Structure formats: C-alpha cells, structure tokens
Queue: 4 jobs
Job 1
Amino acid sequence: MRYWILLLLFITSNVDAQSSKKTSKQLFQNQAEETVFNQVQQSSFEYFRKGAEPISGMGRERIHLDGNYPSKDQTIVTSGGSGFGVMALIVGMERKYISRKEGIDQLSKILHFLETADRFKGAWPHWWNGETGKVKPFGRKDNGGDLVETSYMLQGLLCLRQYFQNGTTVEKALAARADRLWKEVDFDWYRNGQNVLYWHWSPEYAWQMNFPVRGYNECLIMYVLAASSPTHGVPAEVYHQGWANNGKIKADSVRYAGLSLQMHHQGNAVNGGPLFWSQYSYLGLDPRGLKDTYADYWKENTNQSMINYQWCVDNPGKFKGYGPNNWGLTASYSVKGYAGHAPSKNHDLGVISPTAALSAFPYTPKQSMAAMMHWYTTKKDKLFGEYGFYDAFSETDNWYLPRYLAIDQGPIVVMMENYRSGLLWDLFMSCPEIKIGLKKLGFQSPHLK
C-alpha cells in the first residue's frame, strides 16, 4: 500500500477517535458490525465476571479451556490484569452486562482482597494465591512489590473512585476504600534513593532484581501516578532523568512505510515494540491531545498501531493468512511458550494476537473492525470461545488453543469502550491529582484546560 493511502488511513482514524461521544452511525457501518462489536466486548468482559477467582473476585492470571491447566494455577490471581478487570467491571455496569449491585458486590470483594493481601510499602506483587492473599513469586527473587503491575491496578481503582464518588452511601464507601489504597502506595520508596523508579522491591531480596524503569515501553502510567500521588509523590526530576533518561527516550527518526515513531522503543524494537505498549498505560490516561516535551502520544500510539498493521499487510515473513483483515502483534501466548511479538524479522513469529488489533480500536478503527469481522465471521469456530477471542493463533502452524490471559482480555473491553464512549478516559482524567501530576511533568491535554 502506498504512502498516500496510509496517510489517508491515519487521518481518518485520527479524526474518528478524537470525539469521546459518537453515535452508532459514526461507529459502525452496519448492524452486523455493531452486533459483533457488542458480542466481542461482552464475551471478553466475562473473563472478569464468570471467570473470576471466586474467593477474591480477582482476575485469574490465565484460563485454559483445553484441559491443559494445572490445578495449582487456578487460584493464581494477577494484580495488573485485575486492575484491567476493575475497569472492565465498570464497563459491565455501564453496558448492563451485569447489574450495578452485581458490580458493586464483586468490586467490594476485590477491595477487601487488596486491603488484606500481601503488600510491600503499599505496592502489590505481580501474583497472589487468590484464596489466601499470600504472594506467589513471579520469579525466584520477584516475591515482593511490583510497582508496574500495581500502577495498572491503581489506574483501575482511580476510575472506580471517580465512578462511585457521587453515588449512594455504599458507593461512596467503595470510592473511599479505593482512595485509601491509592494513597498508601509509597512511590518515593521505589526510587531506591535515586531519580528513577524501580520495578521491584522485596523484603527478602531488597533491590536485587535491579530493574530501574526507563522508557519507552508500557510503563508511562507508573511515572504519571508517582508524580500525582498526594502522599508519596516524586519530583519531576524522576520522570525526566529516570523515565526519559535525560532526553535519550527520543528516537532517531524511526520510520516504516512513511510512518515515524518519536520514541526510542526499548529492546530490539526496530519498528516499534509489542502493541501493548500503546495500550496498557492508556486504558485510563487519555492519549487524545496528550503531549509533553518528548512526544505527541496520540501520534505515537496511532503510528505504532499503523506500523504494526502495515507490517502484517506487507508480510515480509510470508506467514499464512496475514493481511488487511488479519493482523496484530503483541506479547501473548505463542506456538512455543510466551513471546513479545512485534513488527521485525526477529520478533514476528507468525502468531497473531487478537487483543493487539481489538485494543487498538481507538487508533485504528477501520483496520480493527476489519480484523474483528474477519475473525468472527470466518474463523469463529477456531478462535472464539466463552471469554471472547482466544489469546493468540497461527495459521502457519495451524495452532489454535482455547487459552486466555487476563492482561490481554482486559484491554479489549476497556479500549473498545474508550473507542465507543471515552468512558474510562473521562473517569481517569477527571482525577484532580492526575491533573496536578501531569502539569508537574509538563504535559498538555484537553483535560487540563
């Protein structure tokens, strides 16, 4: 596809997503698209309701429907994925997938778990046992606080607080509990005395994981929250010297198919990282009109999504099935284990992850719709199950397994809703302390006016 066609697609998707309130006529070409959209969003939502761990109400780390699911894993719940699940439950109430009472009951259960489960300087671990609240090590030395996953949960809790803060007595109490949990996270501690945030801390292994978080990747939301915390906030220098690495975050004119990236994507991300980098931090953080000294985030996320799309259309690896209606590379299950699929020779393994295109709906509405309709109308028997589209598949390897991950199903529900109504963006960006934090870091946004 030539550059001018790509440019037209970019302009169209940019305009489509700028308005937070759109009519069905603007969102969908026909009734079939709207019907499938609703079915996909609701089925994906069920991962966090019907599929939730029953005692904690939290999202399970994974659900396998093929029988290959160790019983010891069925109780493992995830902090980040459950943060996405909190946002999905808000969508569920708003869309009437569940009653408001059902949503409140489950969210109350989740808050109780978060209040009583293992925490480390206010931060939660990556995994727990959902029945006991005891940390489940993510790795040998990763048995303490995980500030990135905690930030994904906080993104959800702040949306919960805003959603319920003017409600009934019961709803206001939920909002107050979420607010208390947010204020108890000690972001300043996770600096380890430096102008950077560290991903992990453990009372047993201290800072031995040794992972200072620098961009660009999926972690922008952590720095925004750290700057915004009214109780344990960090100065702007932590963002500029740590995350932005003293300006080294800016890219040296990374281009593909006429599209450029402003950021230096970490690792060997030749044409941009896995697509979740443009999604996880932006489930609540509204990228529309969001800018700072380093980037225009709407442009960055849209271009990353369009590069991902165009790579699959060009299909340099000659993988079976790739094309305009079958695209999307991100971190997910893979034919062998788990992989960070991305648009480059070394990271494209012929595996398509539906969450990549579906969670890109705000950035690439036409391209995401084409993929969704293709998968649902021609591959439903192979790809669609109780909790929506399976996590990943490969036509090249004839590999289709009914398996799901919380961190992939959650963004589908949330970003489809942000495309439809801007609900989670509006909730998160209405937080007074987020406005203060963004201004402190030098951001511009329509929400700050």
Note: The longest strand covers residues 250-256.
Job 2
Amino acid sequence: MQKPILVFKIGTSSITDSQGNLDESVVKSIARQLAHLHKEYAIVIVSSGAVGTGKKYIRDYSGKIEERKAAAAIGNPILIYKYSEAFAKYKIPIAQSLCERSHFSEREKFLQLRATYEELWKNGVIPIANENDVVSSRELKFSDNDELATLLAVGFGAKLLLIGTSVDGVLDQQGKVVRSIHKFDDKVLGLATKEKSSVGLGGMISKLTFAHLATSMGIRVIIFPARKTSGIIKAIDEKIGTVCSPASVSKTARQKWLASGSLVIGKVRVDEGAKKALLRRKSLLAVGVREVMHHFEEGEAMEICDENGHVFAVGRAKIAAGILQKNMNQQNLLLAHADDIVLI
C-alpha cells in the first residue's frame, strides 16, 4: 500500500535571513526532520527561497517581474544544491520539479505529473517543487507557493499539508496562537492581516485561503513556525502551530482536481434557490443565475457564488457566458452538470 502523502511548504522569510541569503542551518534542519519521516510518508517539499537567494546577483534589484524571473533562475540551482547536500547525509536523493499552472489546469498534464511523482516516491526520492518562474506567463504575485503546495496536496490526495512560516501560527487579536480551527468562517478569515514579509509573496491571508481549500478536500493543515527546533516533528504531533481540521469528504479524484487544479476563468452569481439545489447535488440551470461576473467559454471552469458574493462551488461550463446571458430565463438550459460541480 502506498504511504500517506505529506506536503511540506516553507516560505521565503523562514528559509532566508533578513538580507535574503539562504540560511543553510534551516535547510539542514529540514533534511534531518524529513529524513526521520521518510519511511512513514511520501514527501513533497515546496520550497521558497529561489528569488531571495538569487536577487543579490541582480544589480540594482527592485523587484520587477523580469528581475524576479532572473533571480529565480540564479537562485534555484543554488537552493537545490544545498538541499541535495543536506539530504545526502541521510542517503536520500532529491529531485527538482518546476511546475506551471498548466500542469494543474490541464487534466492530462496533471496525470503525467502525478505519475512522475509516484515513480520518484517508489524509488525513495523526495521531489522539491517550485513554480517555473523563468517561463511562467503568469505574474509571480498571483501564484505563490501556498497555492502550489495546496494544488499538489489536493491533487495527490495528501494526508497532511504543513505550512512553515515565520510566525507561531494563526494569531488572534491579542497576538496569541489559535491552536485549532474546525470551521473557516468570516471570524476565522478575519484573523489574517494584509501584512507580508519583505522577501516573500504570501501572508496569512494566503495561508488561510488555501488552508480552507485543502481542509474542504479532506486534508489536515498545520500552520507552524518553521524555524522552531524540530518544528516539523512538533507540528505533526500537534504540539505547536495552528491545526486546521479536515472536513469529511467523499469527492472523486476528478472532482478534487476540478476544485483545486482547474484554472478558474469565469464567475457567476446565483439566486438562493439555485444555491439550495446545488447543495443538494443538483445541476446548475441558466434560470438560477442572477449575474455573469466574469466571462468564460464552453468547457472553462467558473466560480459559483451566492447572493452575498461568497464562493461556495466551482463548476465546468457546458455553454459560454455569451449564450448564457442571452438565455438566462430559458427553462432547462444546463449551465453545469452536477458531475462537473464541486462544493467548496
């Protein structure tokens, strides 16, 4: 039987110092802890730090998109080399995996990616994933490593998603760690501030957003201080950080891929009757749509939100937005079949 999958993500501010230099002691600590867990889990590392490591080689670095891409091109091989050195002590080989959104938005590419990872795990190799910053057509600020880690975790059916950060976990208004989250509501999401580190892209808003998605797909998420001594081990034992409990789900692998990996293009707002029908696992009809908020073509993915603007489902459109808008009052016109709708 295949080992349970553990996805570990570490942010830029946790793996580099204040000047953006790679902190090799953190890399060595990660290798020591994950080597201990290697026999129990199939592990994926999603490591930030490539841009932070490479930017010192870019003259007058200002953070422009082309400079970030160049810094990533320089920093990535340095980062991988340091990981390879650290894991060699435990006789564990590592592999580099540079991912793009098309690896998740296109089902065939995703299946190929998953097959590659399974071959690596079968041979005792730990893949280290990062976004393919150099050629990605999507600006980096729209695709941070919290998202990549979540796409991998959901797509591969991970048991655990560990998000290593520079703070002690999700903090309440008094600055104390929220030890557990069982439900993501407005109160919980309101705990996140818009602050982020000077070297990283994400912040607590990003972490809670993707933790919400992962838990809705049945994955336990732990947000914890990555620099804490034996932090990974303590996080798994739920001794530190914030533990986000997984929901009980019965979604198929395809539905999980649709909810997480699909490149969502469109967005519609539906009435209360349509929402209730979708919650009962019914299809979405054109007559239940109040507004097309973002356009889409036939076959593209769209977010489905209620009258208050809260997204509660993702679906694949049977018709284009233009046809929908001309026929919104037509009875029995199918917008999305129940099999192509995932509640989130």
Note: The domain at 5-244 is CATH 3.40.1160.10 (Carbamate kinase).
Job 3
Amino acid sequence: MALALRTERTEARLLPEQKKRIERAARLKGLSLSDFIVQHADEAAIKTIQQHTSWTLEDRDRDIFVQALLNPPEPSDYMKAAVKRYRKRLGRV
C-alpha cells in the first residue's frame, strides 16, 4: 500500500503485553508496528465480511436448497392468505 495513499488515521488502546506481543510479531515479519497492524486488521476485516456475506452449505443442504429452487412447493393456505392481504394493502386485489 503506497504511503501517499494513506490519509486516514485511527488509534487503539492496548494492554502492555498485547503491544509487546504485536511488536514482536511485526519484527519477526520485518514490518513496522503500523504496517503489521494495518495488514492484519485488513485481512481480518476481509475474512469477517466474507463470513457474513457468503453461505457455505454442506452437500446435503446444498442439494435440498437447489431442489427447492428447481421444484418449489405449492404455496400453503397461509401463504395464499398472506399474498391476498398484501395485494389488498397495495390496492391490487
């Protein structure tokens, strides 16, 4: 990441042992403390976003899901009544 592009700043309060541990890890990777924190926080952010925006299904669950899409069940009486209420609310009976 080019230094000229870094325009935002943030702060973090750490316990002394956390800071020492992070500084040690940064030295082991040959990175500055700031670069280490930014790199790993960004990786954690990407992973967290992926976990919250993607589904991973087991084979069985995937097959059930695909079959439901390909062969949807008939709507239940409850669902039909809900559609009628919705259309009535929109003025489209």
Note: The mean pLDDT is 93.
Job 4
Amino acid sequence: MESKKSKQNVQEQSDFTIGSVRSAILRLAIPMTLAQLVSLLYNIIDRMYIGHLPENSTLALTGLGLTFPILTVITAFSNLFGMGGAPLFSIARGKKQSHRAEEIMGNTFTMLVLTGAVLTVLGLFVKRPVLYLFGASDATIGYADDYLSIYLCGSIFVMISLGMNGFINAQGFAKKGMLTVLIGAVLNIILDPIFIFVMDWGVRGAAAATVISQMVSAVWVMKFLTGKQAILHLKRRYLKVRLKMLKEIVALGMSGFIMSVTNSIVQVVCNATLQIYGGDLYIGIMTVVNSVREIVTMPISGLTNAAQPVLGYNYGARAYRRVREGIKFMTLSGIAYMLIIWAVLFVFPEQFIHIFNSDPQLLKNGVTPLHIYFFGFFMMAFQFSGQSTFVALGKSRQAVFFSIFRKVIIVVPLTLLLPQVAKLGVMGVFLAEPISNFIGGLASFGTMMATVWRKLKEPPKENQAGATNA
C-alpha cells in the first residue's frame, strides 16, 4: 500500500500540469542550482588550488585558462545531444508517449559515447599546436598541455554525466540529478589537494582528480537511469541510433551546442587578442573574470534550466496559460537576481578576484577589467529567458540564431575592433561583453515576446479544462 502511495506521489511530482507553476520550477531549480554549484567545483576548485601554487601560480592558472576553449567544445557536444534530447523527452512525456521518450534517451546516450571517443582521440592528436594557436606562450604551454592530456582521457565520462543528467531532472528527480554532480564534486574536492600538493603533481593532479570524479558521476547516472526508481528507463533496445530521431535531437540541441562553441570561439579570440595587447597577465585576468562569471550566472542558469522541463511538459500538454506563467516568473526572477549580483561585484571586486589568485599584480590590474566586463549584467537575464523559452518549446531555429548572434556576430568583431578604437587596448576586449549583453539580450527576448508569447496568449478550447489546474 505504501509502495503504491509513494509511486503516486512520484507521478504527481513529475506531472508539471498539476499545482503551481512557480512551485514546480522552484522544486527543480533549487536542487538543480545546487547541482550546478557543485558541478562548477570540478573546474573552479582546480583553478583555486592552481592559482595559489607556491611557485608560478599565475602562469599555471593562465595555462589552465588556455585549455578552456577545448574543454568548452567537449561541453558543446554534451549539450548538442543532452540539451537536444532532454526537452524532446519532456515534450514526449507531456504527450504520454513513453516509448518515444525512452527511444530519445537511448539515442542520446549512444551519440554521447561515440562522440566522446572521437573527441578523445582527435584532441590528443592535435592538442599542442592548437594550444599555441589559442594564445599559449612558451612559458604557459607546459601547464596547458599537462592538464589537457589527462582531462581528454576522461571525455566520455564527462559527456555521460553532463549529457544524461538532464533525463533525470526531466522526470522530476531534481534531487537525484543534484547527487550526480555532488558525489563527483565532493570526491574532486578531496582528491585535488592530495594529487596537487601531497603527490606534487601540480596541474596534472588537478586533471586526474577531475577525471576520476567525472567517472564516478557517470556511473551514478547510469545506475539511476537503468534502475527501478526512474519512471522511464535507458533500455538496450533503444540504443540503436535512428536517423530521423537524431535529426530532431540535433536540431533542438544545436542551440546549446552553438552557444558552447561560440563561447569557445570567443575565448580563443579574447586570449589571442589579450596576448597581443597585454600578454600572459591579462589572459590570467580573463581566466579569473570568466571563473567569476561562471559562479554568479549559476543561479540564473539553474533557474532557466529548471524552467525548461516545466515549460516543455506544459507545452506538450497544451497548457499554454501555464507556459506563459512560467516564462514570466523565470524572467522577473532572473532580472532581480542579476541586478543584485551586479551591485555586489561593483562593491567587492577584489574579494572575488582573490578567490582565484593572490598575485598582487593580478589583483591590482584585474579590478577595472572586472568592472567593465560586468557592466549592465542584468541584461543577461533577457538572453537567458528568451533562449531557454525557445529551447523548451522546441523552437530550434530561433534558439540557434540567437546563440550565434550574441557571440559570433557581436562579441567576436567587437573583441577584434575595440582594442584599436580610441587606444582602448586590453580594456576593449572586456568592453565587448557588456555591449553584447544589451544588444543580444533585447533581441532574443524581444523576438520571443513577439512570436512565442503572442501565440500562447489564447489557449485552444480543448485545453481549457487542463489549464484550470494552475
């Protein structure tokens, strides 16, 4: 009897057409945000330890920063299949198409494994010349190569843990999804000081700790999705890739993929430009600024990622009024949060920089770039909300366009041009980000309001009964 009651409670929690939309989003957002916080620790903890090494800490941190574009590409392929498959999975669940949902999950898993294997081999073959191309100097190449060589060997584990965890969250098990990264991150925190300082492996120790931790996270994901607790399961018969379904997954995941790839392109362009105008010091400063950005955008990212399965499920169930309510809540909450963060960063910049490095020169020269980079930071909330709505509702073309628009069409040209304008130099590189936030955020959100929001304004008559459950 208790088992039946427990199963009913699980089903109710995973049916996002029941109860308050805000509660459904927050129920997922809180553990998902905590999960993302913990997930950040995989790389953030590495940077914190490396940035405080007894010798050559700034060079080592800069070397680590040079690997970011390549690590971002691995994340991009995780997003291509994971962020493409999970929203389709949610929409299929909303339509009560369980077999289709499980097939989407199986196809996603297969592509993550195959792509991870290819990226490992390719990355190990081309890593050194690519690092030089990305702005490495003779002083930093050793650190970058050491870290990347070990990290690439765990690419498959990274892709499984990142790409498949969305299918746990999409079933309403946000706490289980949080455990995916919590287990690995705690292990990473334990192993990092042992490998880096006790074993004296330096950056190689940081990479080894990360790979082992991601492997444990991947095992946890697989155990859950094939176990009894999951509502829908990863099944062997659905692992064979079906081309038509793969096209659907890739079409929707292309937004997240391009967003990550464009982030990688921006990192490459920034590092190469900073090497010309400022040298290794300013690449180190950009590494710190990007690390701070990852920390402070985590809650808004957790909120918008949590909203996606709720919006997608209600869209699939044709509960359009609830979709509008979710978009409104996601946007207003994001703006409020980012206004607060902008103020905190403006008042306490040194404290955030000091988390990652204690070099007096980096601290002295890093405050102004950080202030410039985060100017008008709240505008990013509009980009997050518009982009997440397009992804959640399966609007792949719009999602892809605005991923390209902000980074490639705005940031990259500005990064190359602004340093030459009015002798801005390195400050021009940091100025490109706030300009793109204003233009890209308004364009993405404005288009969403003019297209998606307008069509959701009048729900069809056959959905009126379902919509009354709000």
Note: Residues 4-8, 460-470 have pLDDT under 50 and may be disordered.
